[in-house]
Specification:
single chain, 819 residues, mainly beta, eight-stranded mixed β-sheet, six-stranded antiparallel β-sheet, 3 helices
């Protein structure tokens, strides 16, 4: 390592009238003069652009975070020496007691981040904000679909609607070039039903039906006596929609004063309604080319024909077990999803004979195996001008996709994605550069290609009967937490693990014969964030009991002898900012005042936790931190608060009650001794909004969550990435030195990502933007540091510069007694 200590001297700070001078070439003070800050001088390795300096007392405990990621050019003299000053005060503005203090810090070049690839969004580019970019909604699933018929002029081929969107397109149109070519956007948009009849697209949003021209996406509207209106309002929320000629029919969730779902007929030219009929259940609707109205009930129990008078007639077709989504092709063939044992799409001729099937029998899932040529959860079906069948799939299980099937029932193309809200549920394998996951789906990627990803498998084959543990593959309780999956060697044998935290407590899975199975978990009897836990013992106190489960007999069920219980009496406050804790490869956890480590491992790689392998943390120095933080009088213990392990240190937060917007990040050694704190502002989402200006170098905008941990080298140790709410990430060393930032604060007018995905393009002057709430950071097997974030996709970038992070000691500062 290059030397960075040209000056390492003892500096004496003094304000006493009894001292005439201080013998130090770095600092001089004259008696009877006001207290003057002391100068601290040092040099840095060539090419280092920024540095951070902290002051520690003689016991190694932090008293002042002096400068964070300061620019070298601002403090460097002509001789290359950096000069900074300290006023002898701590982070709380109080003068420190007499003693010897050490000035030390870290330095590095300016960080850069180069775009490598995106996954789980087939848009071009895959992120939003550009014409024809990204793909679909960030909340709801692709729930409805329609295709433009042959002979109709339009750049579109297929329209897809989503049942919920926040700031993204809730309707998209896919062109004949297989790219997104049009979209509808609202701050909060949703559509449960779209249909195309001839040259017009009908979109249902809430109680409204909107009408567009498929030739260019302009509003067509409904004719009224006084002119054309852009939309018509129905008396209830619209679940399904069908139009043929002047006949329009909607299935409404209900009409006020009616007992249940309603079938409502309306005029497609004027939007005026007439007949309303009560339905036994919600129905998906479709008109045949002959004008016959068909429907399937959402309980998959019945296929029906519906007369113009609303009379419902059940229809039985050979081989159709549980009819669901349906449509018709131009020849009048019925195309319907069968959710029975065959789990495939079946096509019937007008004389009700089975013509052919689409997708392999049994569907796209066999345990944890994924079959791309089978369908999964089909929400909608459409047929394009070529006669190709389109499916819109999503929900549970993943992936969300639109798939295209040829005239022989074989899949010819699929569009996989988009991610949910700001890429929650997305993660990157800690070591393998070719593996990523989205919720319960694992994908194989090619890091050398901008958008080359394909689903490879499911995480697991499903919950065992009687087990309380399930891999969250729907909307998780804590929507911005994610799984971590990694490889660890136990007794010379490698095992694949996944630690899932979407339930707000960790569930540990280990891969057994390819199938990830739950083998351990840690929870509290009465979680603070939500009233749920998988198991509890009646006699244990609600607020102070921690449970640790090891699946000793590997049956995935909880037995009393498999559960350890620990009592906690911590007074660590409300926590402040959220910390997503990646599991160290040793599978040890730190919760409340307990260090919980495996005592041994089963042959499967499952960890076994025992009382002898767990110990209490001391939290030495906690009282000093609490003196500057307002405690929650209603909940002073927070026994469920997990701490993040970074190298040989622990990180936790303690925020001011009741807002938690301001507080301190605490850094401890593995015994619980607090060695450093960093004041933070803006913990959590609303806390960040409470500070409208960009964060200053002296402050840690604690943002939203921890993105991950990576080791730099033996000298520096590890750093973790604090993912900010306004699109900037902060890298912090394991001992609590704010080392650097990457990307720009969204409030600072940063540049965009560029109109196209370009591999190797620098994004350092871009912002991740506001509410990019999920992230991953780590160092993979190729030695590269990478960062993942996204909105409707997951972007992976290579981080350059962290590998040159270095430590330095600038010297000692003496505060004499009697100051």
């Amino acid at each position: 390592m290059q030397s960075i200590r040209l000056f390492r001297r003892t500096i004496v700070l003094c304000a006493s009238l009894s001292l005439a001078a201080i013998a130090s070439p770095l600092y001089a003070a004259v008696a009877s003069q006001p207290f003057t800050p002391g100068a601290i001088e040092f040099t840095l390795p060539a090419g280092h652009d920024q540095f951070s300096v902290v002051i520690d007392d003689a016991t190694g405990v932090r008293v002042r975070n002096l400068l964070s990621f300061a620019a070298v050019t601002k403090y460097q003299g002509t001789n290359g020496v950096i000069t900074v000053s300290w006023d002898g005060k701590d982070d709380d503005g109080q003068s420190v007691p007499a003693g010897t203090y050490t000035a030390r810090g870290v330095s590095l070049p300016e960080l850069d981040a180069f775009y490598e690839y995106s996954f789980y969004n087939p848009g071009d580019p895959p992120w939003n904000g550009y014409p024809n970019s990204h793909w679909g909604s960030n909340h709801g699933d692709p729930i409805t679909m329609a295709c433009v018929p042959a002979g109709v002029e339009s750049p579109w081929r297929t329209v897809v609607g989503y049942n919920g969107s926040e700031g993204t397109d809730y309707i998209i149109a896919i062109g004949k070039n297989d790219r997104k070519v049009w979209g509808l956007y609202e701050g909060w948009g949703t559509s449960w039903a779209v249909t195309i009849d001839g040259a017009h697209l009908y979109v249902a949003t809430g109680k409204m039906v909107k009408k567009y021209k498929v030739v260019d996406g302009s509003i067509a509207g409904f004719k009224r006596t006084a002119g054309t209106v852009p939309q018509t309002q129905l008396p209830g929320d619209i679940f399904s929609l069908a139009v043929r000629g002047l006949s329009g029919t909607a299935c409404l969730r209900s009409i006020e004063g009616t007992p249940g779902p309603q079938l409502l007929f309306f005029n497609s030219e004027t939007g005026r309604t007439n007949l309303s009929v009560t339905l036994p259940s919600l129905m998906r609707l479709a008109y045949s080319p002959a004008g016959e109205l068909w429907g399937t009930s959402t309980n998959d129990a019945q296929l029906v024909q519906i007369g113009q008078d609303g009379v419902i007639t059940p229809v039985t077709l050979p081989g159709l077990e549980r009819p669901a989504a349906l449509t018709f092709d131009a020849a009048g063939n019925l195309v319907v999803m069968d959710r029975g044992a065959d789990w495939q799409i079946k096509i019937y001729t007008p004389d009700r004979k089975l013509l052919r099937t689409v997708g392999v029998k049994g569907g796209g899932r066999d345990g944890w195996h994924y079959k791309a040529d089978g369908v999964l959860n089909v929400n909608a079906i459409a047929v394009d001008e070529r006669g190709y069948v389109w499916t819109s799939e999503g929900g549970n299980p993943h992936p969300r996709r639109q798939a295209v099937w040829d005239l022989h029932g074989k899949m010819v193309k699929d569009f996989v994605g988009s991610t949910f809200y700001n890429a929650w549920g997305c993660t990157v394998h800690d070591q393998d550069t070719t593996l990523v996951s989205v919720q319960d789906a694992i994908f194989r990627v090619d890091p050398k290609q901008v958008q080359d990803y394909r689903m490879e498998r499911f995480v697991w084959s499903g919950r065992k009967p009687g087990s309380p543990f399930a891999f969250e593959d729907g909307n998780p309780w804590c929507a911005f937490w994610r799984a971590n999956f990694f490889r660890s060697k136990i007794s010379g044998r490698s095992h694949e693990y996944m630690v899932q935290t979407a339930t707000t407590y960790p569930i540990i899975y280990v891969q057994k014969h390819g199938d990830y199975r739950p083998v351990a978990a840690i929870w509290t009897k009465k979680p603070v964030d939500k009233p749920m836990n998988p198991w509890s013992r009646p006699g244990d106190p609600d607020n102070t009991t921690i449970y640790v489960w090891s699946d000793l007999n590997e049956d995935e069920l909880i037995q009393d002898n498999e559960v350890l219980s620990f009592q906690t009496a911590t007074k660590r406050g409300g926590g402040g900012a959220s910390i997503v804790f990646p599991a160290p490869h040793g599978l040890d956890f730190y919760v409340a005042d307990w260090a919980i480590k495996p005592a041994r491992f089963l042959s499967s790689g499952a960890p076994v936790y025992e009382v002898a392998s767990c110990r209490k943390l001391e939290f030495t120095g906690l009282e000093k931190v609490q003196a500057h933080v307002v405690m929650d009088p209603n909940n002073p213990t927070r026994p469920d608060q997990f701490m993040l392990r970074v190298g040989d240190h622990l990180v936790a937060g303690m925020g001011n009650w009741p807002t938690l917007f301001e507080g301190k990040a605490m850094f401890m050694d593995l015994t619980g001794r607090i060695t450093a704190t960093i004041p933070y502002k803006g913990g959590g989402v609303h806390g960040s909004l409470a500070y409208p200006g960009p964060v200053k170098n002296e402050d840690l905008n604690y943002g939203w969550c921890n993105a991950g941990v990576a080791k730099i080298n033996d000298e520096v140790g590890s750093v973790y990435a604090q993912h900010g709410y306004f699109g900037q990430v902060t890298f912090v060393t394991e001992d609590g030195i704010i080392a650097a930032t990457l990307f720009k604060d969204a409030r600072a007018n940063p540049e965009g990502y560029g109109p196209h995905a370009v591999r190797g393009k620098s994004w350092k002057n871009s912002s991740m933007q506001q509410e990019m709430l999920t992230a991953w950071f780590g160092r993979q097997d190729d030695g590269a540091f990478r960062y993942m974030f996204g909105a409707t996709c997951a972007n992976v970038l290579k981080v350059i510069g962290l590998e040159r992070l270095s430590r330095f000691t600038a010297g000692q500062v003496v505060i004499p007694a009697g100051k």
